[in-house]
Amino acid sequence: MISTVLARRYAKALFAVGKEEGKLEAFAQSLNEINSLLQESPDVEAALESPIVPPELKREVVDEIVKAADFEDSLANFLRLLVDRGRIQHLKLIAESFEALMDEETGRVRATVRTAVPLPDDLREQVASALAQATGKEVILVTEEDPDIIGGVVAHVGDVVWDGSIKSQLAGLKESIGRGEQG
Fold it and tell me: Smallest Cα–Cα separation from 72: which of 110, 109, 119, 22?
């Protein structure tokens, strides 16, 4: 919980700088690149997150990342600040919080839709359209397969869940039958 609050605070600060400099999209793209790099290089991620690795070494790693990716100066300084303050291990959460701030700024919302089988493109568009209509925002759709739901769709948009899965319908039927037997 504390790390989430901390990450949001740092993301807001970076967001304010990006907005002031007119570089929000560049910062968002750079943070995505860093996250991708860390996912592809678990050793680098582990070194940055490890309390055993000295801050000087972490700073060298960050400097190499900055040099290789040619990041904006203010973003490079931000990453160095995270190392200096011992907060670099929160980089993923900071990037996620920054992305959420970008979504708020641009009127977008991210939706995760789970289905038992892959969702065909035409249905994917229909689901995205229905969620856009329900939320009043542009929807960025992420789909996941989950055979446990048997059929139907489960959509997560922020804190809201629309569960139209057969699994939940069967659970509801089982519960109503159970209540009928007790009465």
Answer: 22
Residues 75 and 159 in one domain: no
β-strand pairing of 160-163 with 153-157: antiparallel
Q: Which of 44, 79, 104 is the last residue of a domain?
A: 104
pTM of the model: 0.73
Closest to 101 in 3D by CA, of 6, 19, 3:
19
Query: Is there a contact between 156 and 112 (Cβ–Cβ < 8 Å)?
Result: yes
Same domain, 9 and 90: yes
Single out the residue of 129, 58, 125 nearest to residue 87, CA to CA. 58
Place of tokens 């856009």: 132
Structural domain harbouring 81? 2-104
* Tens of pLDDT, residues 52-111: 999 899 999 889 888 888 888 999 999 999 988 989 888 889 999 999 999 999 999 999
Instruction: At 172, list the tokens.
Output: 């509801």
CATH number assigned to the domain comprising residue 92: 1.10.520.20
